């Protein structure tokens, strides 16, 4: 299974479980995450979700093998990515994420939908849209400027450069930065703290925080999906993916 789900008292633990791939994200993983979130949202006994991953990487981004066949070719409205993105945007309970290593692409954009993000000093973040010939997804075109500011978001998204854990903390992308060996204990402690609070009170708080932005966020998500769907059919993605598998630098000089 691409994810593992475990109940610990009032905490639903959702863990990316493809360590042999660096927890690469594909349609199967997005569908499994969507289903796990729906189950946690509907379970009155669950008060908080604790999100994590196995292996050295939080996730190394999208599975480029799937990019070769365009996972959106049958319509973005019916895609697991779109469904999962909406579940994250609307999720009614707190999500605590623990990031132990590289969070690339969807790994970086996904945490923008989490409420508290604890990262290890081994973590790093990349928004690799330009380098892959694609565009922002998972609501990041709206949420990243909201989190770190418009100017910094433009820098990170257009340059595709690596952001260190320290820069991410200072910019507001993550909540806390801790030594690697303390990561899981700290994320667990926060989840346990939240699990001891009133679910109704936390739900009301999260709803108030979400409602201010939800209409604009959902519009941004739909615009992202339309743009991403078009780009997936374009030559830049084919060049980027081909270069990756050929172990060379992509050449975008002759593509739009």
UniProtKB/TrEMBL annotation:
Main location: other
Keyword entries, A-Z: Isomerase, Peroxisome
Transmembrane segments: none
Coiled-coil ranges per UniProt: none
Pfam families cross-referenced by the UniProt entry: ECH_1 (PF00378)
Source organism, top-level taxon: Bacteria
Family: Belongs to the enoyl-CoA hydratase/isomerase family.
PANTHER family the UniProt entry points to: ENOYL-COA DELTA ISOMERASE 2, PTHR43684
Name by which UniProt lists this protein: Enoyl-CoA hydratase-related protein
Organism: Tistrella arctica
């Amino acid at each position: 299974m691409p994810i593992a789900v475990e109940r610990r008292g009032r905490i639903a633990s959702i863990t990316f479980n493809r360590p042999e791939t660096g927890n690469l994200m594909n349609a199967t993983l997005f569908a499994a995450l969507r289903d796990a979130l729906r189950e946690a949202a509907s379970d009155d006994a669950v008060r908080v979700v604790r999100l994590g991953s196995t292996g050295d990487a939080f996730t190394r981004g999208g599975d480029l093998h799937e990019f070769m066949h365009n996972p959106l070719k049958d319509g973005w409205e019916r895609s697991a990515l779109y469904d999962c993105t909406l579940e994250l945007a609307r999720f009614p309970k707190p999500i605590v994420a623990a990031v132990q290593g590289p969070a690339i692409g969807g790994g970086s954009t996904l945490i923008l939908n989490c409420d508290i993000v604890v990262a290890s000093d081994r973590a790093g973040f990349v928004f690799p849209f330009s380098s892959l010939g694609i565009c922002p997804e998972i609501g990041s075109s709206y949420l990243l400027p909201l989190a770190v500011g418009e100017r910094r978001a433009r820098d990170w998204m257009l340059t595709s450069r690596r952001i260190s854990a320290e820069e991410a903390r200072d910019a507001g992308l993550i909540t806390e930065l801790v030594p690697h060996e303390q990561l899981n204990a700290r994320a667990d402690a926060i989840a346990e703290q939240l699990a001891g609070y009133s679910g109704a009170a936390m739900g009301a708080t999260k709803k108030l925080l979400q409602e201010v932005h939800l209409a604009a966020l959902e519009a941004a998500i739909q615009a992202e999906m339309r743009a991403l769907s078009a780009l997936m059919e374009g030559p830049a993605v084919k060049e980027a993916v081909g270069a990756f598998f050929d172990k060379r630098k992509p050449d975008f000089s002759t593509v739009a």
